[in-house]
Amino acid sequence: MTAMKHNTALATLAVAPERFARAPEEPALAGSVVLRPPRPARPVAAAPETGFSAKLKRWFRLNKGAIRAMLLGCLSLGLFIALWHVLTVNRMSIYVRFINVPSPAQVLESAEAAFQSGRFIQHILISCRRILIGFSIATLVAVPLGLLMGRYKILREFVFPVSEVMRPIPAIAWVPMAIMLWPSNEESIVFITFLGSFFPILINTLHGMSTVDEVLVRAARCLGAKETATFREVYFPAALPQIFTGLTVGMGVAWVSLIAAEMISGQFGIGYFTWESYSLVQYSDIALGMICIGVLGLASSFAIRAVGRIVTPWAARH
Amino acid sequence: MSASAKKGLIEVSDFCLSYETMDGAMAAVEEADIVVRPGEFVSIIGPSGCGKSTLLNAVAGFLKPTRGKVTVDGEPVKGPGADRGMVFQQYSLFPWKTVRENVEFGLKMRGMPADERKRAARTLLGLAGLSQFEDQYPDKLSGGMKQRVGIVRALATGPRVLLLDEPFGALDAQTRQIMQQILTNLWERLEISVLFVTHDIDEAIFLSDRIYVMTARPGSIKAEVTVPLPRPRDAALALSAEFLTLRAELAALIREESLKAMGGELNADALKGLAINLHGASISDVL
Q1: What is the ipTM of this complex?
Q2: Contact B110 A224 (CB under 8 A)
């Protein structure tokens, strides 16, 4: 030890043994060191109760925050549905007109019918397939491209200007062009889904690469890592959390783009279903379609976050 | 073991490193010569910005000298490699690898099979007292534990020299002392050459066989001090007259350079305000 900086450490080293032997009643002298006698052992605390009710109580105490959040969430959803019910059942018109808006009960009724028909399920499956294909291709292209662009400045300088020009164009604006470009409707819709998710994934991967700590790259080099190993062992895992942020955002935009494309040019899919319901004056099916889109979007974002948590265990909250 | 059997001779001769700027070349280090003999523990101290880390990074292979030579065991340094282990101030553990995977990294890069390197890493972690943390991610560890992992990771590949860049700078004083002891023990056991960069004089004296003191930027070697203190060294050594004399000498050398480094910022009045004692010398003598 280089106990130079701390005067207290010096005092401890230099202290004479007799200075320990001071009766406890005396007032402490300046500069003296008093060692406390070891504490007597305390009786062992009673073992925690193991009964079911005691455990249940403890569980409630420990999960109070989560329980409150869930109760509040249910309450807010319940109030929303109640308000919806009141507004629609009474056909209220307070500048915003709820006259033709279906009530929750009506939507539930048409949901039952829709799920029994099978056609509705088919719409959902077709939409899901388009998302899966478009989003997967976007991931497979944008993630490697972003990684390479992040690593090699030349590639970034070459590709970035094009991507920056294309990026602000909303996927919906691509619909006419996509119809011209691709031989079938199906392909153009998948293409639009792909475009919607491509840019958020690319930009986030690129951002993830820019946050890689150079010292970690140096450390890897010092341990004998060559280019590919450094890429695999340092750059990729370092960018991974940010890549998953991109995937989550990309999935959201993929749904937005898909629904828009389906509404304009589709013959199938949940977006087409929703638009068709309006044309056919099936008002409760409009709400059903909307709710379905919301649930599917939520579920897919949730799935990506879950995968993200599994593949980046080091980023877990503690 | 005779000294000649040991490996790890670092030779830096006539080392110059300058950066290109719009105003021409800016020298960071000028004509520095250092030698670390096999098995020797050598420190470099100097005012901040003097280029001590630059020298270390050149030995590690991250920087190429503008002029001069850097060799390890006679071979010129061409780039970073596992024969020169490096420990960084910021720990620089891979956050996505567990403690054991961090230690295994160098062996993995060498192509050692998984079970073999697992065993090797466990042995090393045991030596560093980290066995029960092998499956933890680094962000769960304290600074002292992280740096122990950093040192063990650098040693895992059996390097010829160990380079440390202010490795204990971010640790509290108590942890730092313990880490110094651990490093000394590892060094004695492994008989490896160590080049250690620090700005802490006590640390340099306590650890080193020899100390190089660098001048302010552009850095060159101002003094070479052989530490006469016997080993093993312990806390009581810090109270010895020899230690205190050496400390005062080194402090004076560095203060001179620090004042030079701050020359542009300081004048006599500013020194008064900062209560810096020039011991009768005028400011122009020092600067």
Answers
A1: 0.85
A2: yes
Q: How far is B284 from chain A (nearest CA, A)?
A: 31
Res A216: pLDDT? 95
Confidence class for position A68, pLDDT limits 50, 70, 90? very high
Q: How far is B109 from chain A (nearest CA, A)?
A: 6
Q: DSSP for chain B?
A: --GGG----EEEEEEEEEEEETTEEEEEEEEEEEEE-TT-EEEEE-STTSSHHHHHHHHHTSS--SEEEEEETTEEP-S--TTEEEE-TT----TTS-HHHHHHHHHHHTT--HHHHHHHHHHHHHHTT-GGGTTS-GGGS-HHHHHHHHHHHHHTT--SEEEEESTTTTS-HHHHHHHHHHHHHHHHHHT-EEEEE-S-HHHHHHH-SEEEEEPSSSB-EEEEEE----SS--GGGGGSHHHHHHHHHHHHHHHHHHHHHTTTT--HHHHHHTT---TT--HHHH-
Whole-prediction pTM value? 0.81
Nearest to B106 among A3, A9, A223 (CB): A223
